[in-house]
């Protein structure tokens, strides 16, 4: 038979003189092994995806060590990204935080994009590095010590970072080359700052007293590794010894039970086969084995040794019937489930529960320091540490009887556990578990009040390792003016606000209002909480003249900031007293309902939705409850204001056609303006959300329903665009201001006049 060659060019392989079928198999095997393409190494390398390099950050007021670290990170970032020219300058500027970038722009008088990278780096360093005396850095370096359980390599890294800014160099007098003696300094500091005194003694007692820094580190590293290994070995040995002792005691106990023949058998009361022999021994030796007790009915013991006090009653025969079977079936098929709800807070103004998260824990940042004078007062030697004034966030815990701090926070002042004051105090946490007290120190806490006054308190602070925070006690909170000395007292925190009772009907006007402390209200913003107006001032705080007019105006705005001039959009509006307004619509009218909303332009949707949410928070609107049928349903119409912002309205024309007015006359603005005397001091007011301070009856809310792309809403207060809203508001407002002389009013605008500024002030 002929031989067969490989079909690939330049391949010399050929088969033997075999059959054609076998030759085909051999050629296939050859092609698979010799001519299979494999990807090149470069292709595999290109398939790997490298993680993006993170850009370093820098902020103002840093130390020289932090600046050195930033320079190193920036060089690595620039090398990895290969940025050059203007792009490098932009990336360098983006490394600065917002405050540093703002200060640089102010300092340079404009943008720094056109400058070189070196010039920008110099400008950043000028503002980012806090100027320090090199002596201070060297003193801090010499005071550094190794923390407990800190590896020696980590301690060395901390020392090198601080040593880089100490500049341990000296010029050579002959060759003018700077000689660096940092290694020698670090070797001595490492030896002095060791936390393990045994390793320190071994290092100081070693024959080789000329070791380099690296040799010292290796010596300490070996000692630390040996101690860790010895500790694990001792734990394993003690565990094995404890296990062996346990098993030995167990074997001895079992053996003594089998071998002791003097004890009385627990099952039959006889001697000779042990107190509690095994089952195999009792089967041949115990006469009670296999018998049933005549007192309790249990097997393998007799009545004379039975420990059962009373004889169990025999079970009563039960007749199975359909009722019992049904009860059993019901009990097997019944299930219980709990209702899970989110956290809610009760809103007094709206008289309802509102889903809202709990307030965050009360943290406040206070200036904290350790003063040697406080130690001398108690006749104690103060610790030798530099005086530091740190801004530390503390938790104002009114339930804490003594100040408590974490050891990590105390170490920031330079104090170690050996510097703490020994105490015998025992403290218990809220879960009745003890707190490990390491000692105590004396701290001074100070802060600035809103009026600018500085308040300070000195407190003995106990130190623990069970927490990571600093807790301020009740006495400290009182000393800093956070709470009063009579805390807790109901109604002490804020004035009272009058609200309608929760059980009052909408049309009942004779109910007695209830009072609730203002602290029960919450607001998700920094606006003052709404409350009743404070007592009316008896006299002006400044002389009532034209020079102080602006000051008097501002004083009134501040004095009534939480009541009259409170325009917060996150708190429900206070409502006018009196019966709610009824929407008098013809009951025979055919309701008009639109089921498709008018589309809102995309660039307005966010603002329109925010306006709806704001009115819901104010108590003006409410979403239509689930399951509420549609009767009247109007359309929301959005149009543009003069400034391009959206104006949201509701088309109530169909409802107005069948509505009846509650007519109340208002004099024309022309006649009102003519009635104001000349040469008078005038004061003008404008009611904010005036119509929305008139509540409508709950039975009439469905008449104001309107549809939006975000669902159906309805009014809880008088809507603008309804034919009778102006009548209802004007009637109520006129009754409120009816006793005020020298005034005129047009809808929600009012004007008062007086002969002089003092007279105008007395009308407020």
Automatic annotation (TrEMBL):
Residues 505-521 have a biased composition (Polar residues). It comes from the Eukaryota. Residues 494-546 are annotated as: Disordered. Residues 531-543 have a biased composition (Pro residues). InterPro entries: DNA/RNA_pol_sf, Retrovirus_Pol_polyprotein, Rev_trsase/Diguanyl_cyclase. This is Transposon Ty3-I Gag-Pol poly, partial. It comes from Paramuricea clavata.
């Amino acid at each position: 038979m002929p031989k067969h060659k490989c079909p690939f060019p330049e391949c010399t392989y050929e088969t033997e003189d075999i059959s054609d079928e076998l030759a085909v198999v051999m050629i296939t095997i050859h092609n698979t092994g010799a001519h299979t393409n494999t990807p090149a190494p470069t292709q595999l390398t290109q398939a790997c995806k490298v993680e993006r390099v993170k850009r370093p950050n820098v902020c103002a007021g840093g130390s020289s060590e932090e600046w050195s670290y930033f320079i190193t990170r920036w060089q690595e970032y620039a090398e990895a990204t290969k940025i050059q020219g203007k792009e490098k300058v932009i990336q360098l500027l983006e490394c600065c935080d917002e405050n540093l970038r703002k200060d640089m722009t102010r300092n340079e008088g404009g943008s720094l994009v056109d400058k070189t990278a070196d010039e920008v780096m110099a400008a950043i360093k000028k503002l980012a590095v806090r100027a320090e005396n090199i002596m201070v850095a060297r003193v801090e370096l010499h005071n550094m010590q190794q923390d407990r359980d800190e590896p020696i390599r980590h301690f060395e890294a901390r020392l090198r970072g601080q040593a880089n800014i100490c500049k341990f160099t000296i010029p050579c007098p002959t060759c003018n080359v700077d000689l660096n003696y940092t290694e020698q300094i670090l070797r001595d500091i490492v030896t002095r700052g060791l936390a393990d005194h045994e390793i320190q003694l071994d290092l100081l007692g070693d024959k080789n007293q000329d070791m380099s820094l690296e040799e010292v580190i290796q010596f300490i590293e070996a000692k630390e590794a040996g101690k860790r290994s010895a500790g694990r070995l001792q734990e394993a040995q003690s565990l094995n010894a404890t296990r062996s002792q346990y098993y030995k005691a167990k074997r001895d106990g079992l053996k003594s039970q089998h071998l002791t023949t003097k004890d009385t058998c627990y099952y039959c009361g006889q001697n000779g086969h042990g107190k509690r022999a095994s089952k195999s021994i009792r089967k041949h030796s115990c006469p009670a084995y296999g018998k049933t007790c005549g007192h309790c009915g249990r097997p393998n013991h007799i009545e004379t040794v039975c420990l059962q006090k009373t004889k169990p009653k025999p079970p009563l025969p039960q007749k199975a019937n359909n009722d019992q079977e049904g009860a059993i079936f019901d009990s097997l098929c019944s299930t219980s489930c709990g209702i899970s709800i989110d956290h809610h807070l009760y809103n007094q103004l709206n008289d309802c529960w509102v889903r809202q998260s709990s307030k965050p824990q009360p943290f406040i940042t206070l200036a904290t320091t350790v003063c040697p004078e406080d130690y001398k007062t108690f006749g104690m030697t103060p610790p030798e540490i530099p005086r530091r004034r740190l801004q530390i966030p503390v938790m104002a815990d009114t339930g804490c009887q003594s100040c408590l701090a974490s050891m990590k926070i105390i170490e920031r002042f330079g104090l170690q556990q050996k510097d703490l004051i020994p105490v015998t105090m025992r403290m218990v946490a809220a879960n009745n578990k003890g707190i490990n007290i390491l000692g105590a120190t004396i701290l001074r806490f100070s802060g600035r009040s809103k009026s600018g006054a500085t308040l300070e308190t000195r407190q003995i602070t106990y130190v623990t390792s069970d927490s990571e925070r600093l807790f301020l006690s009740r006495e400290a909170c009182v000393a800093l003016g956070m709470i009063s000395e009579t805390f807790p007292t109901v109604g002490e925190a804020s004035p009272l606000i009058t609200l309608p009772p929760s059980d009052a009907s909408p049309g009942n006007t004779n109910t007695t209002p209830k009072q609730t402390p203002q602290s029960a209200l919450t607001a998700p913003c920094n606006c003052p909480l709404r409350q009743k107006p404070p007592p009316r001032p008896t006299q002006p705080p400044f002389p009532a003249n034209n020079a102080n007019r602006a000051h008097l105006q501002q004083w009134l705005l501040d004095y009534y900031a939480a009541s009259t001039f409170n325009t917060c959009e996150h708190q429900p509006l206070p409502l006018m007293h009196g019966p709610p307004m009824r929407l008098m619509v013809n009951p025979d009218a055919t309701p008009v309902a639109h089921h498709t909303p008018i589309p809102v332009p995309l660039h307005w949707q966010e603002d329109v939705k925010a306006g709806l949410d704001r009115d819901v928070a104010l108590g003006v609107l409410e979403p239509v409850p689930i399951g509420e049928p549609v009767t009247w349903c109007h359309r929301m119409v959005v149009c543009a204001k003069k400034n391009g912002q959206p104006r949201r309205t509701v088309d109530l024309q169909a409802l107005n056609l069948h509505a009846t007015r509650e007519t109340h006359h208002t004099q024309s603005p022309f006649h009102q303006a003519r009635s104001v005397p000349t040469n008078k001091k005038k004061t003008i007011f404008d009611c904010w959300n005036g119509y929305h301070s008139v509540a409508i009856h709950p039975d009439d809310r469905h008449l104001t329903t309107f549809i939006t792309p975000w669902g159906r809403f309805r009014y809880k207060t008088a809507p603008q665009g309804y034919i009778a809203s102006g009548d209802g508001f004007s009637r109520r407002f006129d009754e409120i201001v009816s006793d005020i002389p020298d005034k005129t009013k047009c809808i929600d605008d009012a004007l008062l006049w007086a002969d002089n500024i003092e007279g105008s002030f007395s009308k407020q």
